[in-house]
Structure formats: C-alpha cells, structure tokens
Write a structure and sequence with these properties.
Blueprint (H helix, E strand, L loop, with lengths): L1 H20 L2 E5 L2 E4 H9 L12 H23 L6 H23 L9 H10 L14 H34 L9
Helix pairs in contact: 5-6
C-alpha cells in the first residue's frame, strides 16, 4: 500500500510534465498549435532572434504567424493545391535540398575559427584607404577592429566550410559510380 501511495505522485508529476509540454496555445479549425510548435519555430530562427525567445510580445507575434500559416495551409489542402503536378515537383525539390542540408550538417563539423590581432591589423593596413567616415577621415584601427575580425572570421569559416564540403563530396564520389553522358 505504501509503494502505491508513493507511486501516485510520481505518475501524476510525469503526466503533468507531458501535458505542459503539449500545452495548446490555439486551435485552427480544430488543429492544435502547441507550445512545442511555437518553440520549434523559435529554435528554427537565426541566432540573433534567440535572445527574444522569452519575450511575451515576440512569442505572441510568432503565434499569430503560426495561426496564419496554418489557415493558409488548410486552405491550400482544401483547394487541392498539394495535388498539382508543379507543386509536387517543387515539394520534391525542397525535400531533396532539405535532405542534402541535413546530410551536410551531420557530416561537416567545423572547429571554431579565430583571427589573430596581427591578421586583423595587416588587413587594416592593407585596406586603410577604404576605411573612411562620412567626412573622408580615416577610421582608426581600434574602432574598426571588431568589424574586421568578424569579417575575417566569416571569410575563414566560409573557406573552411567549402574545403570540408569539397572533401566530403569527393569521398562520396569516390564510393559511387558517376557517368557523364553528354559532352
């Protein structure tokens, strides 16, 4: 009897957790939009929006966007747009792109890229003539340094990603049979 009494709160707390995770925020023609749906939308946004994920007004606006999207999705299905041959081709193309992107994310892991002070300073000195304010006065290195560092980091990351992607594609290609039939 004692173990039954102790297990009831555990089961109850587990079921509360499940309900909280699936909290319904809105219904569109009976289709529930949950807090989990909203969180997934927020997590899919670019990193600069992540700081707003707990802002009630931001969440409310995104919920309104989810509602509008669901309304339009339901209308598209009702009109049979999902069965249109051209739409089917576009869906298949997007599916291919999503799968390729997921494959690349899975297999290409990049290390953080850093830019040394000497690299940033050398870039500044080489391009000093381009760093002018509205009055034509040269912008000092200390002011422009964060922008130079960020730009050089992005450039290095892009080069590293391109190198890693080429290596990965080449490794897949070596294991495959590719025949080019046109000249």
């Amino acid at each position: 009897m004692k173990s039954l009494i102790l297990s009831v709160p555990v089961v109850f707390s587990l079921s509360i957790g499940a309900v909280a995770a699936e909290k319904v925020l809105a219904k569109v023609n009976g289709k529930a939009i949950t807090e989990k749906d909203l969180d997934q939308m927020i997590n899919s946004l670019p990193p600069n929006y992540q700081t707003l994920k707990n802002n009630p007004q931001f969440r409310k606006q995104l919920l309104q966007n989810l509602i509008k999207e669901e309304l339009l999705y339901q209308e598209a299905i009702k009109e049979g747009i999902d069965k249109d041959p051209q739409v089917q081709k576009e869906i298949e193309l997007m599916k291919r792109r999503i799968l390729v992107q997921a494959l690349v994310r899975k297999h290409i892991k990049l290390s953080p890229v850093s830019v040394s002070d000497s690299e940033a300073k050398a870039f500044y000195e080489k391009n000093k003539a381009t760093f002018k304010d509205a009055n034509g006065k040269t912008i000092s290195y200390d002011v422009i340094k964060p922008f130079i560092v960020k730009s050089l980091q992005q450039q290095k990351e892009k080069q590293e990603f391109s190198r890693a992607l080429n290596n990965y594609v080449n490794s897949v290609e070596r294991k495959s049979k590719v025949e080019i039939l046109t000249k």
